Amino acid sequence: MADEPEDDDTTGCCVIYNSNVDTGRMTFDGRTRAECKKANEDFNLGQGWDFYPNTACSQV
What pTM does this model have? Predict the structure, then answer.
């Protein structure tokens, strides 16, 4: 077992967005949980963003 903090896990994440401007998916492969959390905060503009930590968009 690795003794690194969870935030160092590089499992990636998926952001699916559906706004009045655009729709799509962004996969952040190899990002740490902390990076994905920040990405989610940066992209979550209250316009229908769904965030799937530790998940590839192809799995959603």
Answer: 0.47
